[in-house]
Design goal:
Low-confidence stretches: 1-14
Mean pLDDT: 82
Distance between the termini: 43 Å
Number of helices: 3
CATH topology of the largest domain: Jelly Rolls
CATH architecture of the largest domain: Sandwich
CATH class of the largest domain: Mainly Beta
Helix content: 10-25%
Order of helices and strands: HHEEEEEEEEEEEH
Number of domains: 2
Number of strands: 11
């Protein structure tokens, strides 16, 4: 049984004729505010639904390369590099002693040149709460890279993780926002100093949107109409003849 319908019935009962003492209750003296708070509670009880990852190949598992090795590839599923001579460097398993956080493969942003960019453009629903998340770590003493969002939301920040060989851990980055248009581009740009064809690793990249359950909106709407009817009925019953 869902909690939301039970709450609807219970609250409607409270404002029914069978609860005459509520007439003197302070809560009922401000009926619009009472109704708003009740509806907010009802929506909160029935949680929103998080969709799956909107990014393609956020774990860099496609294509699968030889176990415990690395490979520099011209193309991979989902991602694009605009750089002339740019490649995608995939590490697998125990190679380099930097294990992936999702699956068995991760991406080193700077595969072949010192200033390299990889990006992916996806479709999103405008006006919906959205979260970007990814794990990152470094290979060299300097592993500077920039994460940027563009399209439906503008955002950019620069990160410089410690080398995994000195601090053997990944860090998780998250950014929550509400896009205003239906497209979103996620861009990683590696710019280590001094210039090297090596640097930051990323893995487990995801963009997830959280949307209200249709049942939440429908039930809350029906419950609200029911409570409005009961309040109007009570008001008429309280009027003197």
């Amino acid at each position: 049984m869902q909690v939301l319908p039970v709450l609807m019935v219970s609250i409607t009962f409270l404002i029914n004729d069978r609860a005459p003492n509520l007439r003197k209750n302070k809560i009922m003296k401000n009926k619009p505010r009472f109704l708003f708070l009740v509806l907010a509670l009802l929506v909160g009880v029935h949680p929103a639904h998080a969709q799956g990852n909107l990014l393609v190949n956020g774990g860099f598992e496609d294509p699968v390369i030889a176990a415990n090795s690395y490979s520099k590839l011209a193309t991979i599923s989902g991602w694009t590099t605009p750089n002339v001579g740019g490649l995608f460097e995939i590490w697998s398993g125990t190679f380099g002693s930097i294990p992936a956080t999702e699956g068995i493969q991760s991406l080193e942003i700077n595969a072949s040149i010192a200033d390299e960019t990889v990006f992916q453009t996806i479709s999103v629903t405008p006006g919906v709460l959205t979260t970007l998340s990814f794990d990152y770590t470094g290979r060299e003493p300097d592993n500077t890279f920039t994460i940027s969002l563009s399209g439906g939301y503008a955002f950019s920040t620069t990160l410089d993780p410690a080398s995994y060989y000195t601090t053997p851990a990944w860090t998780t980055f998250t950014e929550t926002f509400v896009p205003t248009t239906s497209t979103l581009t996620v861009t990683f740009r590696g710019q280590p100093v001094p210039a090297l064809d090596a640097g930051a690793h990323i893995d487990n990249v995801s963009v997830v949107q959280t949307v209200p359950e249709p049942s939440t909106l429908a039930l809350a709407g029906l419950g609200g109409l029911g409570m409005l009817w009961q309040l109007r009925r009570r008001k008429k019953a309280d009027q003197p003849f």
